[in-house]
Write a structure and sequence with these properties.
Structural class: alpha/beta
Bound molecules: threonylcarbamoyladenylate, magnesium ion
Low-confidence stretches: 218-230
Number of helices: 9
Shape: globular
Number of strands: 15
Helix content: 25-40%
Order of helices and strands: EHEEHEHHEEHEHEEEHEEEEHEH
């Protein structure tokens, strides 16, 4: 944490410094053509956890991953015909495509909140492209505002919300589109508009050559709530929350120094040192590993309701009530 993040005008030196900070796991706010993004190295789970911490998001909603070019996206997800057509027509630009993750990708589980899909876009902004090239890695970024505030279109907006929570704010003037990207997911190969945005649905329909359905909005408090495609990750095993110890036959998801030691199979500790950033980064992969061990139930230690603990507990509670 720094007292006040420097706002740096776009320059080669600013890009170089911003890229170095990202690679060190720090947060950098940067311009895109839609809105300013709050960026972190998408391959670093703890860096991604700091995004949620900085925004004060009470939930882990999945994030958009920004890549330099289409070929970088092709390494991360599986493209079918229709998404490929859309990508070729609208990238770089304000279109996000949600596609199944390719096996062996290095994107942190927290980025897609444990889902098997990944939301990707290639931004059309010289500063964003320069940063992606210099950092030489995918950048996860939600809009650079506090949770519940509107998306920022200038560096000053970002500074007002997050000035004390980011390492640097890269300034390239006002965002030109000023509206978030359109988000398209696929259900049995059919495109579904999950969020209206910078690319009009008519333009998407014309290029897709197939109908593009508009998803009904979830009656969720979140204005950005995507349609049912974004159903959250749920383990098969039952979760028993606020446990002191595992019972016979239960797996153990610990937090803090108490409880059984980690064995990496049926007993995992999210953070023996009670670090919520470390715990958030580990949460989804830990649930997956424990679930894969075939147990009926997973006993989960108490996680404090502070900072990132709110989002961690939100996920655990949703996974527990099924
Ligand atoms: O224009 C934009 O899209 C900006 C700039 C910074 O790129 N970003 C942005 O991110 O608006 P954010 O976090 O505010 O919105 C991301 C949206 C959320 O509604 C999220 O649920 C959806 O993307 N999303 C991300 N991954 C998803 C997935 N795997 N499945 C469904 N929806 C997903
Ligand atoms: Mg947003």
């Amino acid at each position: 944490m720094v007292a006040r993040a420097p706002i740096r005008k776009l320059s080669d030196a600013a890009i170089r410094d911003a890229a170095a900070m990202l690679r060190f796991g720090h947060l950098v706010a940067f311009p895109t053509e839609t809105v300013y993004g709050l960026g972190a190295d998408a391959t670093n789970g703890e860096a991604v956890a700091r995004i949620f911490e900085a925004k004060g998001r009470p939930r882990f909603n999945p994030l958009i991953v920004h890549v330099l070019r289409l070929d970088r996206a092709e390494a991360l997800v599986r493209f079918d015909d229709v998404p490929l057509k859309l990508a070729k027509a609208f990238w770089p630009g304000p279109l996000t495509l949600v596609m199944p993750k390719a096996p062996g990708g290095r994107i942190a589980d927290l980025v897609s909140a444990g889902l098997e899909t990944l939301a990707l876009r290639v931004p059309a902004h010289a500063a964003a492209s320069a940063l992606l090239a210099a950092a030489d890695r995918p950048i996860a970024a939600p809009s650079a505002n506090l949770s519940g505030h509107v998306s920022p279109t200038t560096a000053e907006h970002v500074a007002a919300d997050l000035g004390d929570r980011v390492a640097m704010i890269l300034d390239a003037g006002p965002a030109t589109v000023g509206l978030e990207s359109s988000i398209v997911g696929f259900e049995d190969g059919e495109p579904v508009l999950l969020r209206a945005g910078g690319v009009p649905v008519e333009a998407l329909r014309e290029v897709a050559g197939v109908p593009v359905r508009v998803a009904a909005h979830e009656t969720d408090a979140s204005p950005n709530a995507p349609g049912r495609l974004a159903s959250h990750y749920a383990p098969r095993a039952r979760l028993r929350l606020n446990a002191d110890l595992p019972r016979e036959g239960e797996a153990w998801l610990g937090f803090g120094p108490a409880g059984p030691e980690e064995d990496g199979v049926g007993r995992i500790n999210l953070s023996p040192g009670s670090d919520l950033v470390e715990a958030a980064a580990k949460l989804f992969s830990a649930l997956r590993t424990l679930d894969a061990s075939g147990v009926e139930a997973i006993a989960v230690a108490v996680v404090p309701e502070t900072g990132l603990g709110l989002a961690i507990n939100d996920r655990l509670r949703r996974a527990a009530v099924r």
